[in-house]
Amino acid sequence: MATHLRFISLTVTTADTEKTYRFDQQATVVSGASGTGKSSLLMLLKYAIGGKAMLTPAVRNHVHSVQAEVVVGEQHMTLKRTINDSRTDHVDVLDPETLTLRRTLPIRDSAGGESLSDLLLAALRFPRESIATTREGKATERDLTFADLFTYVYRDARGIDQEVVGHLDTWFKSARTHLFKLMFGLTDSTVLELGKLLGKLKEQLKAKTAEYESVQRFLAATDPRTDEELRAELADLRDMLQRADTALASLRHELQESSAADAVLRQELRTAIEDASKATQELLAAEELIEAREAVVAQIELDLSRLERSATAIEKLLPFHFVVCPRCMQRLDARPVPEDHCLVCLQPDPADDDVDPAAVQHTRNALEQQLQEARTLLAADTEVLRTARERAQQAEFLTHSLRRQLDAQTRGMVSPHFEAIADASARGATLRASIDAVTQLRDSWARARAIDQTVRDIKARRTRAAADQKARLAELAVRKGLVTDLSRNFDTMVAELRPAPWIESATIDPTTYLPLINNGSFETLQADGGGIVTCINVAYSLTLLEFGITHPDVLVPSLLIIDSPRKASGTNEQDQERGRRTYRSLQAIAETYGSRIQLIIADNDSAPLPSSTFGKIELDYDNPTVPGVAHPGPGHTGRAEDERES
């Protein structure tokens, strides 16, 4: 049976006031001139239950929250959602009697938590499924949400004269067809899970096939030998390596035996080498010390020479009294000179100690004493250097003699062994390198075989999954008769509405589940006028609604919201009569099924049929949808379908 879904009321709250719109009858017509808020009212119904809606500036700027009282399945609840604040991505679920908060749920799926969509689908007893899809070339999944299902419920004014249940939206195409199949039982969770599995297996097969081909190309470009040839060669190489290692071990054993007799001589050589190293270090230290002593002697000699020159200059020049400048020959006695200052350079006269012969002699004696001491130390250190040099020469000579003796003693036996060992080691290293290279190639072959086996396993799993899916679809194929029955009912509905006289047949495509008019696709109708397209769209939705009511195993929602069923229709008598036929069908369905269904219709005019079947919500510029907000009038109208989604 149709899943029960019904709006009882919608409350619009602004900062200053609020207004409640009720939908008590099985059919309600929201009427009013363009710009009074008919579409906004329907959009707010969609917004309140968690959908994306196109909201006008009047709604975005003035409405604080909307509150929808709804019946979903057997659950009665009130849903409250704010506008333009930080909580717009959540909906409060309230008790419909007391309006106390039951819970707050996110609009979209949260990690591991329940969303509003989960709550509503569970209340409708509609299967919660996800479908296989691709994103950026990778297999992924897309959850089917309540908002997706609501697309079959709400036919908005923007698309009613252009598309059928959003069929022009390529992103929504797969969701639309899977929702139809779920509603009619043409698919189930088993088929969908197998479909997702097939999508993943397809991606895995593509990746593994590409990897296998890459490895094959690498092997073909690297080495022409087959895996069997490499296996045989590897066995030969390992046998040769074993023989080479055995020969090397024998040579080393022989060398160890011959080297035992040379142990004493080798120990003496090691001791001589250590002594030579110590003697060399002592020699270097003595040479460094001699350099330091020589530098001190040279510095003292330099100081003594400087003292001698200074004393001689003072002694020769001190008796002279200069009356003219010795450089430019100008007279000096005419200029004022402070007492105790030099007449020539005008600097203070030196202290007496600096020119006193006794003081100068005392300094000379001290420097000569230092020089004598430095030369004595230098002579002693020179003797130490000579002794260290002799000791280093003797140690080096001893080392050289012992090395020559050891070479002479081992030349006939050890050297050939060393050469043989070096050759055997080199051969072993070459064989190991060859074994590593062959092993790496064999590893690549093993990887290729493993990938090939994985490819075969994936193909086998894909074959089994495809067979299981085919078998399950065969079991469900009996329900395709429902689509045939729906197609027949659609033809009857189109015949009743008579969108255009040239329409001879109307069917439902068994693959896309979209209307076919005269066996032509829906897109071909665009050139024939938007009013005709709108009428066929209404016929399609009414057919689905009625079919769900009359078939207990079809899960079509029992609610249908139509925004502008006469959109794009003209004012001539033929267009007017088509509108009346549309409303007669709406009236007939409402009267036939009563409370089992609900119709909410937005139109510029009230229903063209005087009938108590249609409840009324009448809007005008003095009483627009948003309460308490003055409307600027006919010249300043805006349509909700022209706004962006929120």
Brief sketch in words of this structure:
The chain is α/β, with parallel strands linked by helices. It has 14 helices and 15 strands. The protein has two domains: 341 residues, Rossmann fold (3-Layer(aba) Sandwich); 155 residues.
Question: Which CATH architecture of the largest domain?
Answer: 3-Layer(aba) Sandwich
> Within the CATH hierarchy, at the fold level, what is the topology of the largest domain?
Rossmann fold
Please state the CA-atom Rg, rounded to the nearest Å.
54 Å
Instruction: Please report which band the strand proportion falls in: under 5%, 5-15%, 15-25%, 25-35%, 35-45% or over 45%.
Output: 5-15%
Treating each run of at least 4 consecutive H or I residues as one helix, how many helices?
14
**Secondary structure: number of strands:** 15
Strand order of the largest sheet: 2-1-4-5-6-7
| Total count of domains | 2
Residue windows where pLDDT falls under 50 for at least 5 positions: none
Q: What is the assigned CATH homologous superfamily of the largest domain?
A: P-loop containing nucleotide triphosphate hydrolases
Overall mean confidence score, pLDDT:
84
Structural class call reads alpha/beta
Distance between the termini: 33 Å
CATH class of the largest domain: Alpha Beta
Main beta sheet:
6 strands, antiparallel
- The coarse overall form would be elongated
The percentage helix is 40-55%
N-to-C order of helices and strands = EEEHHEEEEHEEHEHHHHHHHHEEHEHEE
